[in-house]
Amino acid sequence: MGEAGAKVEPGGNCSGAERREIMCGSSTMENSSFSSKILGLAFLLALAFAAPLCAADAPQLIQPAELNKILQGPAKQRPLIIQVGFRSLYEQAHVPGSEYAGAASSAEGSKELRRRVEGLPRSRFIVLYCGCCPWSHCPNVQPAYKELQSMGFRNVRVLYIESNFGADWVDKGYPVSKGQ
Predict the structure, then answer these.
(1) What are phi and psi of 130, to 5 degrees?
(2) Separation of alpha carbons 55 and 51, rounded Å
(3) What pLDDT is stored for residue 100 in this prediction?
(4) Cα-Cα-Cα-Cα dihedral sign, residues 73, 115, 118, 59
(5) pTM (whole model) above 0.85
(6) How far apart are CA 75 and CA 21, in angstroms?
(7) pLDDT 10s digits, 37-79
(8) pLDDT value at position 180?
(9) pLDDT digits (tens, 9 = 90+) for 88-98
(10) How far are the Cα atoms of 7, 12, 19 from residue 4, in angstroms, in the given order?
(11) Which of 11, 55, 144, 148 is the most buried (most CB within 10 A)?
(12) 162 or 17: whose pLDDT is higher?
């Protein structure tokens, strides 16, 4: 090896065969690196195009505190709130101003939901909730959300219920109404 700053002759101390091996090896490494970059870019592009598709299918969530804050504001900014769960839960306690549409997992509940929203502008702010269990396991919010999406509604959110309506709304002191 030469000293730092020393002039290196082209070809150095390598034979012609060694120079070809070094050159071919370097070229192979460059090609491999280039291929890796192309594959990485292709992967990132696939993710970029797939993410919006997945995001469009996943319910947009609204936290209980956020919904409560909106309910304290001007009436014209309040969403249409629809309980898509079981009647007994709605009668025990529900978000003030919410409407009962029936269990969206049933054909009757789905039909009632469609009837309730059919004449509304597709930009209407709508909040869905059930409250029987964690929203991610609920048999009602997912079908209701998909139903509204299929009808063209794009401003729909699902109330984030971590455990159940009692624990995540009532026990936190948010306002409730009872009965029908």
Answers:
(1) -125, -70
(2) 6
(3) 97
(4) positive
(5) no
(6) 77
(7) 665 555 555 545 544 434 556 899 999 999 999 999 999 999 9
(8) 79
(9) 999 999 999 99
(10) 9, 15, 22
(11) 144
(12) 162
User: Is pLDDT above 60 for 173?
Assistant: yes
CA dihedral 120, 151, 64, 131 (to 10 degrees): 110
Whole-angstrom Cα distance, residue 111 to residue 120?
15
Report the DSSP pairing between strands 80-83 and 99-100: parallel
Backbone angles phi, psi at 82, to 5 degrees: -125, 125
The CA distance from 153 to 26, in Å, is 56
Give Cα 23 to chain centroid, integer Å.
50
Structure tokens belonging to residue 132: 């029987």
